[in-house]
Amino acid sequence: MNENERRQNAAGLDKLKERLSGIRNLYRGGLVFGLSYVAYTAVQFSLFESILLYLEGPTPPASSSYGARDHSWFHISVASFIAGAMGGLLTNPIEFLAVNIQTQEGFSVIKTLKQPGILKELMFKGSLWRSTYHGFQAALFFLIW
């Protein structure tokens, strides 16, 4: 094998490594994103039920003919908006880490958590928009569902 063939083989291997790293990078941070989605859903559904029961008060609404409780659309929309907004706020730090893992090359969670003032950034950076979005999204979901 001469020098020219070695260079071509090395260039081919570099292209293959670059292609595979692109595919691998597509899924980087997917586990953290999945965990944030699971946590958000768990918080949203548990808060929705609790808030809905609180809004309805001690007397339960009338039951339909098949035994399910009939809830007011107003109570459903308020409870789902609050539950979605609180779920978005409480899971914002996990989402922050997931987005940074996916978008920044060489991002380290441990180094990030050691930075001074990072807790404020984790909790509040983008949380107003995320909470508002998730509140309206949850309200639409529970009203349509």
Task: Give a description of the structure.
The chain has one domain (29-144). The chain has seven helices and no strands. It has helices spanning 3-26, 30-56, 73-90, 92-103, 109-113, 118-124, 127-144. The longest helix is centred in the N-terminal third of the chain and has 27 residues, at 30-56. The radius of gyration is 24 Å and the shape is elongated.
The average pLDDT score comes to 79
Cα Rg: 24 Å
Could you say which structural class the secondary elements and strand pairing correspond to?
mainly alpha
> What general outline do the C-alpha atoms trace?
elongated
How many helices does DSSP assign? 7
Helix residue percentage: over 70%
Number of strands: 0
Distance between the termini: 67 Å
What amount of the residues lies in strands? under 5%
SSE topology sketch:
Elements: H1 3-26, H2 30-56, H3 73-90, H4 92-103, H5 109-113, H6 118-124, H7 127-144
Helix pairs in contact: 2-3, 2-4, 3-7, 4-6
Question: Features of this protein?
Answer:
145 residues, mainly alpha, 7 helices, elongated
Brief summary:
The chain has 145 residues and is mainly α. Helices cover 77% and strands 0% of the residues.
